[in-house]
Amino acid sequence: MSGAPRIAIVGGGLGGLTLARVLHVHGIASTVYELDASATARDQGGSLDMDPESGQRALLHAGLLEEFRPLSRPEDGELRLLDKDAAVGFRIPAPEPAQGDEGEERPEIDRRALRELLLGSLPEATVRWGHKVRAVAPGAAGQPTLTLSDGRTVAADLLVGADGAWSRVRPLVSDADPVYSGISFVDCLLHDVDARHPAVAELVGRGTMFALADEKGLIAQRNGGDRIRVYAAVKAPEEWSRSGLIDPADPAAARKRLLDLFPDWDEGLRALIADSDGPLVPRPIHALPIGHRWERTPGVTLLGDAAHLMSPFAGAGANLAMLDGAELALALATHDDLETALNAYETPMFPRAEEAAAQSADNLTGFFHPDGLRIACDTFTAVTSGGEAR
């Protein structure tokens, strides 16, 4: 773009940081306003598989693909689908180290490691830590303004909402709100699994395991640092996971209440909860309406979950957020006119996100159907020819 536009990015997650990085590659400055006090202020979540056509493409535009590879774990790409007796119904093996075209792999990487890679590639002053956005306004002549929690205001030529499910920026372009999906996760971690929990490590394998039955599930995922992250998934009212289960003052009782929801499940599967370390964290699953979009709003746009929040059952959220960030940056670098650039970014983003959101919603409904394991096996069989069904 001609001149030096003032670009304010609200949210320092993977999408916002990818946008800032690709802008930096093209010599365009931006400022990221992040609520967290530091990069280590909270847990960044589990592992991601980087899709060649979205996450890896974004890293290529960011000039970070080669730095990404040694941080990733192709060997953790196994998928297992189990019933509640721990019998394997379907398996996709992890890729061999030298197998196939490297660009076709979906290697795993921890969110924390990926975020650190992006942060380390930015000029030091790009991210403003501990900057909570209290309000946003459209401003005069299409120049939006931010009001920070300390009362300061910031004017921008472009305001990008990369601030997730409960975006402060979204109301400037849309009146849509996330809707509870009917499914709640409770997540926990097991540490030093190969030494301390070898049976669990063997059950989960080298990647991700879904155990599905009775319209509920136990999902376990290998993370770096010899950890396994566990998500217990149940159908429940939205308030249940907060008020009906988790008591921070009594984690043992909370763990027992969660185990009581899986009474006749294999003891090895129940050990994913019983042997976990640290707190149980409730995560109700929300989504924006499928096909969420907005009319072109001068000086404002959204990316990632702020634009197209969906359940995790398409494995697309972080990949799409990063692709959004990269393509928005490329549009801004290519077009002299800001509104032309924003239109060029949003036009392909909307249908791409709609397709992924529809798949995510279908999978959520199917996996937590009474016949969820069969539906999940059929789903993964349809998308891969490398699976092994029992």
Automatic annotation (TrEMBL):
Class of this enzyme: oxidoreductase
Domain FAD-binding: 7-357
Organism field: Streptomyces mordarskii
Pfam families: FAD_binding_3
Residues noted as binding NADPH in the record, renumbered to the chain: R42
Coarse class of the protein's main subcellular location: cytoplasm
Keyword Cell membrane among UniProt keywords: no
EC number, as in UniProt: 1.14.13.-
Entry domain remark: Consists of an N-terminal FAD-binding domain with a Rossman fold and a C-terminal substrate-binding domain.
Function of the protein: An FAD-requiring monooxygenase active on some tetracycline antibiotic derivatives, which leads to their inactivation. Hydroxylates carbon 11a of tetracycline and some analogs.
Subcellular location: Cytoplasm
Protein name per Swiss-Prot or TrEMBL: Flavin-dependent monooxygenase
Catalytic activity entry: a tetracycline + NADPH + O2 + H(+) = an 11a-hydroxytetracycline + NADP(+) + H2O
This protein's UniProt keywords: Cytoplasm, FAD, Flavoprotein, Monooxygenase, NADP, Nucleotide-binding, Oxidoreductase
Family under the similarity heading: Belongs to the aromatic-ring hydroxylase family. TetX subfamily.
SUBUNIT field: Monomer.
Positions that bind FAD: D49, R111, D305
Cofactor: FAD
